[in-house]
Amino acid sequence: MAVPLDPEMFDELCPSDLSPIRFGDKWAGMVVRCLEGGPRRFSELRVPLRGVTAKVLTRSLRRLEADGLVRRSVLAGRVEYALTPLGRSLLGPMEVACAWAREHWEELLDAREGMATAAD
Known about the structure:
Blueprint: H1 15-18, H2 28-35, H3 42-46, H4 54-66, E1 70-75, E2 78-83, H5 85-88, H6 91-103, H7 105-119
Antiparallel strand pairs: 1-2
């Protein structure tokens, strides 16, 4: 049995939401991170991804599956999602992008705040 996902795995102000580098839709990178440790059921993914609706998470999983990054399996009536080898190959580039976002976090925040102030 897999170790349960940490409900606090993603900060509310997660750098992945701030980063201008996207892997698929808004939630795709976080889904990939959740599947890094092995297959997960939909309800397990909802724990750290509590900010996403079931409909949007389903759409994100379907897109990842269509792109060949995630495999959906039905085993004994249970649906599980797992990374494919292609999906696993995305983990390295994602880590580089996350490291870049952490390094430039303050600059990204300043730019976003500057845009919000200019819009007022």
